[in-house]
């Protein structure tokens, strides 16, 4: 295999500028799934993926998913599936990624235009929304195909690709599609690989075997018929924002402790075996400070910090729709405000039980306010946590590829973020799922100035290709 991989690696290096150009074109399409006005761009990005894949010789299908639930004026973007190769003597690997991105506005504080890939030649940092989450990794698979073709190296496996456009909005419609296609498009898969998370630091690669789930809520408080003048009506009416802020501040304390009764009891106890795992992970508090961009950590020690990210639930307050947020001093009483918060869930939390506990808490606190306003809690979307076995040939193949490309053994990690369909793929295919990250801890996914380091992108393309070669070699045994 070594000469084949050498030729493939040389080709990736030779094509690196054209791979960066492909990423620039993708970043330039603002495929923000959470903003109605960007829905045509999400479709455009789906078309871009389909056209790039067709040019590489893959069999591509765009699957419409129908109307968006609760937003029937919007069509869901298509799932793009593609097959590259159908040789029965080869293994078949299914890869998944998403072509939608989080919102990004210049006024959020970006130093460069979010939808223009800006390469800082001195640091190798490539800034742009979606560069690391998840356009860089998704294009990594396409680039790996192209480099094999150009280098004249036989592609080692049959590749099934599944790219969606709603991941950042709860993967609407995808679970049903995957279950429908379990015995169709996905039936040949021998293993699944997802590249959509990050290293723990900036130097050591990792393989990931767990994710937290995510229950995302909106909490609406309404009262007056329209926004009011606070001079005229302040002191005469129950104010929705006052109620909302009280309820939101009752959910979690400043140390991150969730204050909702019953949540702690749902969390699986920590075992001694698990405690021992944390000490060997290459992660320091300085890694955290670097990726936080500050020293505002909740805990001073590594193990508690990793547990806080991986295996305990957390509750984050995200924002308030309808609140006055512009510069200046508008003296308004907003008539309707919608608070947004989410709970990252872990084993053994069940979505329905979490929502029941949240509803009970909100009802209790709101009743205590004795307000005449109306308060409504809604679960916007939920995605389940996932923990898999890393003792499977899929992980062994990936570990060999990491050692080959990066010269070190990868850490085995869990991820604090969520990829809701991971569990669905596991259940639909009955096969092992591996998370193989490309980007690093300082990439700032979901934040301002999101970036992917040039080194992680180019070596990441080599890693994805090498992984497929090692998969082709691994003896078939379930782990
Ligand atoms: C880890 C992955 N790249 C990611 O960013 N996932 C999102 C998915 C999401 C959106 N709403 C709920 N889950 C995340 O973890 O926020
Ligand atoms: Zn994301
Ligand atoms: Zn992502």
The stretches of 5 or more residues where confidence is low (pLDDT under 50) are none
Number of helical segments with 4 or more residues: 14
Structural class: alpha+beta
Helix content class: 25-40%
Per CATH, what is the topology of the largest domain? Answer: Aminopeptidase
For this structure, what is the CATH homologous superfamily of the largest domain? Zn peptidases
Please state how the strands of the largest beta sheet are arranged side by side: 1-4-8-5-9-19
What is the makeup of the main sheet?
6 strands, mixed
Shape: globular
Nearest-integer average pLDDT: 96
Total count of strands: 20
Q: Which CATH architecture of the largest domain would you pick? A: 3-Layer(aba) Sandwich
CATH class of the largest domain: Alpha Beta
Bound molecules: ligand L7UNP4BN, zinc ion
Overall tally of structural domains:
2
Radius of gyration of CA atoms, rounded to a whole number? 23 Å
For the termini, the CA-CA separation is 24 Å
* Percent range for β-strand residues: 15-25%
